[in-house]
User: What shape does this take?
Amino acid sequence: MLDKQLLPCLEAVLFAVGEPIEIERLAQALQEDETVIDQALQKLHDKYNNDECGICLLKLDNKYQICTKKQYADSIRAVIEVKKNAPLSQAAFEVLAIIAYNQPVTKSFVEQVRGVDCSGVIANLCQKSLIEEKGRLELPGRPLIYGTTSDFLRCFSLTSLSDLPPVPQKNEASGSKNDENNSADSKLTVDENENIE
Assistant: This one.
């Protein structure tokens, strides 16, 4: 049975931290077993998961964060006058996809796949906290390796990287010209809608 004080304490900690935090770190700080913390987090999730609550508990890989619900984004912006971030460019989406599906990767790997210099795009994605440096390879020059962040998961409404849609196989991509044209048209529509949002 959960201690009556644990739930409000956990809620206060998650609210104060304001960023994704690992369950292990919560358990250590609150001097509780990870199983107990996990149960408490599930209770918080259930508590927020109703129409009368404006916040929710997000699970991002092995981390948790309290956030506002999507449907209140416009109201929040209106009150605190937050300017909408500029949408990602097509190049940024391509680099992000390469990193997300192949991480951890070096800048040279990304450039080899895309065939162009990606320094500016990678710097921009790091600035937006969608990717981050994950260390260095033990190779000459010790190149940096990059991977996605918790912000990436949150922005794309993913619980973990396993939720990424599968990459189309080559035999799926090679269809009749008619099918290719149809899929290209529908892809264009999806991309345009994503950019508008």
User: Anything to note?
Assistant: The longest strand covers residues 55-60. The domain at 90-165 is CATH 1.10.10.10 (Arc Repressor Mutant, subunit A).
